[in-house]
Amino acid sequence: MNIWWVVGIIVLVLGFIIGNILLLQQTAKTKFPKVSKDNNASYDKDED
Fold it and tell me: Sorted alphabetically, which keywords does the UniProt record give (predicted)?
């Protein structure tokens, strides 16, 4: 196997792993809105 194939595969795998780690860090910082009856009417439609 050519050495450039091995280097290319290693670079692709490391890029994939680092990209996923950065995406997880970005997602962990996002704030999600709280669920209430005003913004989700079908959440508890049996109550009331």
Answer: Membrane, Transmembrane, Transmembrane helix
